Amino acid sequence: MASKEKQAAPKAHGYEFGGPIGAAGITFGLPALCWVFALACNDVTGCPAPSLLSPKTLSLEQLKQEVGWPGFRGLASWEATGWTLAYYLFNLVLYRLLPATEVEGTQLSSGGRLKYRLNAFSSTMFTLAICLAGTIAQGAEFPLWTFIADNYLQILTASIMISYGLATFVYVRSFSVKPGNTELRELAAGGHTGNLIYDFYIGRELNPRITLPIIGEVDIKEFNELRPGMLGWIIFNCAFIAKQYRTFGFVTDSIVFISIVQTLYVLDGQFMEPAVLTTMDITTDGFGFMLSFGDLVWVPFIYSQQARYLATHPVIMGWLGTAAVTAILVTGFSIFRLSNSQKNTFRTNPDDPRVAHLTYIETKTGSRLITSGWWGIARHINYLGDWLQSWPYSLPTGFAGYTILTAGSNAEGAIKMLDGREVVQGPAKYWGMVFTYFYMVYFAVLLIHRDNRDDEKCARKYGEDWEKYKKTVKYKIVPGIY
To answer: 3-class secondary structure for the chain?
Structure first.
């Protein structure tokens, strides 16, 4: 019996993310931050709202007017909630109906392997084909684009509520995990500490699954990892391009560039969907509020902030600017893809001529830790490439910040909207970077934190062999610096 209990509930390790206090702060703080971003950088008065630039004279009533405050009841609507739920149902239908590849995941601590149904890429392409057809037929007035623009705040609220609901569901259901169960259900090593808020945040159950009528069995974590949120990111960007056109009568190279490269990033991840089964999110983390909120809210709403900004303040990069950010993108993508390909090839067939020359340390567990090639430069050189790819998402927004003036202001250098209002940078210049460059900073923090978590996991797994490896490959992410 003791052995079976260990299989269902692997030995827990210490707290992460600042423990219960940090988990509580993130669980209730990040949704509030999303609302702040949606309101403080707006298409009513500016980005940021003018009053925020003069905190000493800030008036709550004036600020409410400037951000278009709809009241607490106005933050949500039944219509937006209904259509948001319909969007998730649509994704589930595509998951079941479209052709898929059946793949086995990594071995669980219980000794078995779960099977996964993978078709995120074809689901996204099918959805985008519908969006393209609608746009060809109705242009920027395609109802999907106008609905998102008109109900952005309410869609955000609906998504937040869904993420809370989903996290609550899997948390409560995780207590039904029994030792030796035939469904291969088990608890995540770090998710059963006994502290309610921490376990709710980090996720108790490693691989929660549910069987739905008609749809069948769905792996909740893998489904949410690359589907509704990632696709939503693309859809939001497209909606903001349409909004820019409806607002100004033209579309700029900056918003098109950002939308294209972010779309390619999503499609690349979905095309390589089997690779997600070996990531920490799938193999180590439980599914709790951290992944529920991250997948369904943080990715589509925070990652699309640059396109949202450019929809109201157009920026023209020109060929030189486009070439510069493209060079950074290609550099980052090359490092990311080549390093990951090298590692995957080595794991699959270390005798392959492309990797046979690599040196490595063979651990007592039988694993091999590469010490040359890309992985001899830094222990997570792929993270450097991933971070460099985030730069072209923010750089096209320039020294961000704008103020919206009434029609007839005739301000110098103003960009006129079709309704006569004018957009200038004025005193808001630079302050808008808080919103458009947030992703770059956040992503750097995320990758550093992920590196530290991986270091702790490897130290537990490999022991002294890991210490030997770190002495050979000294740098974590950035060669010569970190």
So the answer is: CHHHHHHHCCCCCCCCCCHHHHHHHHHHHHHHHHHHHHHHCCCCCEECCHHHHCHHHCCHHHHHHHHCCCCCHHHCCHHHHHHHHHHHHHHHHHHHHCCCEEEECCCCCCCCCCEEEECHHHHHHHHHHHHHHHHHHHHHHCHHHHHHHHCHHHHHHHHHHHHHHHHHHHHHHHHHCCCCCCCCCCECCCCCCCCHHHHHHHCCECCCEEEECCCEEEEHHHHHHHCHHHHHHHHHHHHHHHHHHHHHCCCCHHHHHHHHHHHHHHHHHHHCHHHHHHCHHHHCCCCCHHHHHHHHHHHHHHCCHHHHHHHHCCCCCHHHHHHHHHHHHHHHHHHHHHHHHHHHHHHHCCCCCCCCCCCEEECCCCCEEECCCHHHHCCCHHHHHHHHCCHHHHHHHCCCCEEEECCCCCCCCCEECCCCCEEECHHHCCCCHHHHCHHHHHHHHHHHHHHHHHHHHHHHHHCHHHHHHHHHCCCCCCCCCC
pLDDT at 456: 85
Mean of the pLDDT values across residues 323-346? 91
Provide the residue ranges of all domains of the chain, joining segments of one domain with +.
Answer: 2-316, 317-400+437-482
28-48 pLDDT tens trace: 999 999 999 999 999 999 999
